[in-house]
Amino acid sequence: MGSTEDVFSATALVSEVAKAATYTRAYAESTGFLTLLSDGEQLTGAHALGPEAGEWLQQATLAIRARVPLHVLRDVIQPFPTFSEIYVAALKSLHGQITAARGTAG
């Protein structure tokens, strides 16, 4: 969805997302991922593969179409435990790349 490449790109793996004991083994061992693309100000694209990829892409679609700033996305509290918890890791990684590139903290 959206751009297929941009200045910044971060991938979060399903296998590294915190999970509750109620999730199935198939989910816990999934090789799925969420990749977010950004121009440094907002999301420009997203790619996903996993048990709830449609849920993740719906959130990304809205953010891209509405031009939601990254700082607003980072401030969203993802319900835990849900599959959307994957956004926390992806946005944190994306933020780290952007701040490192700009030589800023924040």
Quickly describe the structure:
The protein contains 4 helices and 3 strands; from the N terminus they run βαββααα.
What does this structure look like?
Helices cover 38% and strands 18% of the residues. The chain has 106 residues and is an alpha+beta fold. It has a 3-stranded antiparallel sheet with strand order 1-2-3, with helices on one face. A hairpin with a 4-residue loop joins strand 2 and strand 3. The relative contact order is 0.23. The mean pLDDT is 83.
**Percentage of residues assigned to helices:** 25-40%
Oligomeric status:
single chain
The side-by-side strand order for the widest beta sheet comes to 1-2-3
Q: Characterize the biggest β-sheet.
A: 3 strands, antiparallel
- Range of strand content: 15-25%
Rounded to an integer in angstroms, the radius of gyration calculated over CA atoms is: 13 Å
> First CA to last CA: what distance?
28 Å
Give, in order, the helices and strands. Answer: EHEEHHH
The coarse silhouette is globular
* Structural class based on helices, strands and sheet pairing: alpha+beta
Overall mean confidence score, pLDDT: 83
Provide keyphrases for this structure.
single chain; 106 residues; alpha+beta; 3-stranded antiparallel sheet; 4 helices; 3 strands
Question: What topology does this entry show?
Answer:
Elements: E1 8-13, H1 25-28, E2 33-38, E3 43-49, H2 53-65, H3 70-75, H4 86-102
Antiparallel strand pairs: 1-2, 2-3
